[in-house]
Design brief:
about 450 residues
Length: about 450
């Protein structure tokens, strides 16, 4: 493919939430691990970045326009992509990307060292009975890359002067708030913001020497013009929730300095923070409210209201029919939270990604916790059951939690779906829906306010 122009963009993005671009295999300690470069550092494959850009580009523009930029293959006809996408390289604490095989001494950098040993995230899928879905392999864990890491990448398009409209459309796409990287994006992963962008259009008929002098390294921005980073604002539902009592999102481990040893503790994670002069440090053991812990409860409550609106009640169903009206089989839940492709090979059921987007929430304030002991009681004797003594460390009240819940393509949702979602969110804000661990023991009650968008 030839062309008189080369459109070049070099950028640096910073993840505002954890992200996971899966390696497609299990790890030694997790069911899912991230893609790594030869140094063992997290990386963004060029195919992942190109795939996300192509998918979002196709949603916003016509298929013919997408084929012009990204190429296509249809039977005996096809055309190669005009866009070349580099791998994304991780930055060290000095805000410099690691390109190629690094010296072992450089890998001791605190940000790089932490990136090689990410936090293990535990997950469990809950059934309509409120118990873990053990039969459906609902217990799993994964190694996600923590929030705050920066990556640099390059985009280059081959074309002519008349094809500059394709490049302008691509640059405009970078400000799309729905653009996320990796998997699990509908449960809080993969959100990012740009911190640096620089580009130039080289006319090889007169700029060949300047194009040839462009450094190969991603750090080389000589000859490129800096762009203002797009604001990735989106219309969201804002929930401000105040804990009414004890609450906890479990899956973490006790801190060494805490007295006692809890069997269940709040989940914690790390993130990288950057100073204005580009120095990165790792904040460890931050309390986290996982997005999945909120979305799971909302999905079940949405199913409840969807069934109530449709006049579907449990006392009129057979046991084998419960799956069709609860959880991911409910049509309204599928519309809001998505569904996987039919494993039975039904070509009509291609799956759908969720429209409700909620991010992990990092808590910076000080929260008081307490070691609470529990014992299982024998129903017949009224005494303690053998080997069922356990303790947990829930949090007690504290500062309000502020969540931003986005709804993609809200204008495509049915009135039934929007009504059910509104009622579920109102239940959460008015103390009628418990979230987190220990809901059967009185934990997880919140109350607060909701700010609604225009829809």
């Amino acid at each position: 493919m030839s062309g008189t122009h080369r459109y070049v963009l070099r950028g640096t993005l910073e993840f505002t939430t954890p992200f996971l671009i899966g390696a497609g295999r299990e790890g030694d300690v997790a069911d899912a691990v991230f893609v790594a470069d030869p140094n063992g550092l997290p990386a963004i494959p060029g195919s992942s970045l190109a795939g996300v850009l192509r998918a979002r580009f196709r949603e916003r523009y016509q298929e013919e326009t997408t084929h012009r930029l990204f190429g296509f293959q249809q039977k005996d006809q096809g055309e190669g992509s005009r866009l070349a996408v580099s791998w994304g390289c991780l930055h060290d604490s000095q805000d410099v990307p690691v390109e190629g095989v690094a010296d072992p001494e450089r890998l001791k950098d605190p940000v790089l060292a932490h990136a090689q040993v990410p936090t293990l995230r535990d997950h469990v899928r809950i059934t309509h009975r409120g118990a873990s879905d053990a039969a459906g392999h609902g217990k799993f864990d994964e190694q996600a890359v923590c929030a705050g890491h920066r990556f640099s990448f390059e985009l280059e398009m081959i074309g002519t002067e008349a094809e500059g409209d394709l490049w302008d459309k691509l640059l405009d796409l970078l400000g799309d708030p729905a653009l996320r990287l990796g998997g699990k994006t509908r449960r809080g992963y993969g959100a990012f913001q740009f911190v640096r962008l620089a580009q130039r259009v080289f006319d090889l008929r007169r700029d060949f020497e300047a194009y040839r002098a462009l450094p190969v390294s991603l750090t080389g921005l000589q000859g490129l013009k800096e762009l203002s980073c797009p604001r990735r604002a989106e219309e969201t539902v804002t929930l401000t929730l105040r804990p009414r009592g004890y609450w906890m999102f479990g899956g973490g481990a006790d801190l060494p300095e805490q007295p006692g040893e809890a069997d269940m503790a709040p989940v914690r994670d790390s993130r990288v923070v950057w100073t204005k002069d580009g120095k990165g440090t790792v904040q460890r053991d931050l309390l986290v409210v996982p997005a999945s812990g909120i979305k799971g409860a909302l999905a079940h409550q949405v199913a409840f209201y969807a069934n109530a609106q449709a006049g579907t009640f449990a006392d009129g169903l057979k046991t084998e029919d419960f799956a069709t009206v609860t959880g991911s089989e409910n049509p309204v839940v599928r519309e809001l939270f998505g569904c996987t492709k039919d494993s039975k090979g039904d070509k009509e059921d291609r799956g759908q990604r969720g429209r409700v987007i909620l991010d992990d929430l990092f808590l910076d304030g000080a929260y008081v916790s307490q070691l609470v002991h529990h014992v299982g009681i024998d129903r017949f004797t009224g005494g303690a059951r053998d080997q069922v003594l356990f303790c947990e460390r829930p949090l007690w009240q504290g500062d309000p939690l502020v969540f931003a819940l986005g709804v993609a393509e809200a204008d495509h949702l049915s009135d039934e779906a929007l009504r059910a979602l509104r009622r579920a969110l109102e239940d959460l804000a008015q103390g009628r829906l418990q979230v987190g661990a220990g809901s059967g023991r009185g934990c997880g009650y919140f109350e607060g306010t909701i700010t609604w968008p225009r829809w």
